[in-house]
Design goal:
Helix content: 25-40%
Distance between the termini: 20 Å
Structural class: alpha+beta
Radius of gyration: 28 Å
Oligomer: single chain
Shape: elongated
Number of domains: 4
Number of helices: 12
Largest sheet: 19 strands, mixed
């Protein structure tokens, strides 16, 4: 086995997290080993670059203007009946090449695992009536002799309070597709359906997913939704129906509120259009429009105040899944964190009580008021986001003593976990901190690694040792235990 110092230990040394003895041993090793000396310099240089990047202000790119110009140009060409022009490296391209490029763009933007289906004649179906019998704009007929578009699926990343799908309580791992009816009570619901696209339902809102595929997304809204949508490929549509009007996406981030015959559309990024029959009113970034259902015309958009724009942007500060592959993969790649009985912040995002949050595996910060802790989760795991008060922690002293005695009995197994550190001569000062909840019958309700300075494999080994410990019956308690791995 190689006795080189692993890179994370050089990072710990750079942060001053190693003991004086371990730091001296690492420095001595670097003087004798050219490979480790080079690795230490690379780690130092990389961390210095990261600190510099974190301190820099991001460039102010005018994406709103760029996207608005692109969408406006494409919309004008479609209305004029002219095909959208593309600038390619070799100049003018034959019509067949344009078709191939468009098909590739759609396939890349909307990934699907389903095999292509044989062409079939599509039939237009009647849209379900809106609540209250409101008149809806007619849905466009599907083009004849076209294969059906691949379906799109969404995954729930946040569910607060009473949330239903089709009138039944929403299962957190249930995928959202065409035909779904989503409804919220006093909480919120967030659905993500690609890397940069989310739909956030506000309280007391009903959303009917009329169409959800690679060709179009069509939502019918009664209540409030905040939406962020990735750039549309040519031929793709994203439409929100609200009463007798529809909102068509020209950009990426906007809010629609439709209650009691009143419609409000606010755009914070990009551009949307409020369509009433053959008339369309553009709502650019930083503008809002208010209109009544029984008015013949929508009127004009007005500018939003800066504080209103900031508030709307905060509404889209919601849990998201990075490194998106597909909705099906997201269910496997992520973990669930339950927020039981107090408002909390998970990775800085405000979450109401009785909520479930989808997070990627790894370490996450959970804060309640001024108290915070780290929570480590693995893919497929379900964890509890709870920060208990100091009085309850003091009442767990008896359980903490039981944990300490049990760990002393498991020193041999813990020593086996630390063997990789000992073989590299870096076990000094190594530790893992675990948090465990002990039930009344002595079983463990939850177990998390919340801190440490060892590789993940060593931390997982320590966690397995603790997980195998059985405790006597007694009062339920939460215990935080720092486990030293020093020989």
């Amino acid at each position: 086995m190689s006795r080189h110092v692993p890179p994370h230990r050089w990072a710990d040394l750079d942060d001053g997290r190693l003991s004086a003895r371990a730091a001296a041993r690492a420095d001595r090793h670097a003087r004798e080993c050219a490979a480790c000396a080079a690795a230490r310099e690379r780690v130092r240089a990389a961390r210095a670059e990261l600190r510099a990047v974190a301190a820099d202000e991001p460039p102010a790119l005018r994406w709103d203007t760029i996207r608005a110009q692109v969408y406006w140009t494409l919309a004008q060409e479609r209305r004029a009946g002219a095909p959208a022009r593309r600038r390619l490296p070799m100049g003018a391209v034959a019509a067949g090449a344009v078709a191939v490029a468009a098909a590739a763009a759609i396939a890349l933007r909307w990934p699907t695992r389903e095999p292509p289906r044989p062409p079939a004649r599509a039939h237009a179906t009647a849209a379900p009536p809106a609540a209250g019998g409101a008149r809806l704009p007619p849905a466009p007929d599907a083009a004849p002799d076209q294969p059906p578009a691949p379906p799109v699926r969404g995954v729930v990343t946040l569910a607060e309070g009473d949330v239903t799908a089709g009138g039944a309580p929403l299962a957190f791992d249930e995928l959202v597709g065409a035909g779904a009816r989503l409804a919220t009570g006093t909480g919120r619901l967030v659905v993500q359906f690609d890397a940069d696209s989310v739909i956030a339902l506000g309280p007391r809102t009903v959303v009917d997913v009329v169409a959800f595929d690679a060709a179009q997304v069509r939502l019918r809204v009664a209540g409030q939704v905040d939406i962020e949508v990735s750039r549309r490929a040519p031929g793709q549509r994203f439409v929100v129906e609200a009463g007798v009007r529809r909102i068509e996406v020209r950009g990426t981030a906007f809010r629609v509120v439709h209650r009691a015959g009143r419609l409000r559309v606010a755009c914070t990024h990009g551009r949307v259009a409020v369509v009433d029959g053959s008339a369309a009113t553009e709502v650019p970034a930083g503008h809002v429009i208010d209109v009544l259902d029984d008015l013949a015309a929508a009127g004009a958009a007005r500018p939003l105040a800066d504080r209103e724009v900031a508030r709307l942007r905060r509404a889209l500060d919601v849990p998201r899944i990075p490194h998106w592959r597909s909705a099906e993969a997201a269910l496997v790649d992520t973990a669930r964190v339950d927020v039981p009985d107090a408002a909390a912040r998970v990775d800085g995002i405000a979450v109401a009580p009785a909520a479930a949050v989808r997070v990627p595996p790894g370490r996450h910060q959970v804060a309640v008021g001024r108290r915070a802790r780290w929570l480590d989760v693995r893919a497929g795991e379900r964890a509890l986001a709870r920060v208990e008060d100091a009085a309850r922690e003091r009442r767990s002293a008896a359980r903490a003593a039981q944990v300490d005695r049990a760990l002393r009995r498991e020193r041999a197994r813990l020593a086996r976990c630390a063997r990789p550190l000992v073989s590299h001569g870096i076990a000094g000062g190594s530790f893992v901190t675990v948090e465990l909840g002990i039930n009344r019958d002595g079983s463990q309700g939850y177990l998390n690694v919340i801190d440490g300075n060892v590789p993940r494999s060593v931390a997982e080994c320590v966690r397995d040792v603790v997980d195998a410990i059985a405790f006597p019956a007694g009062r339920p308690a939460r215990v935080v235990q720092r486990i030293s791995l020093a020989p």
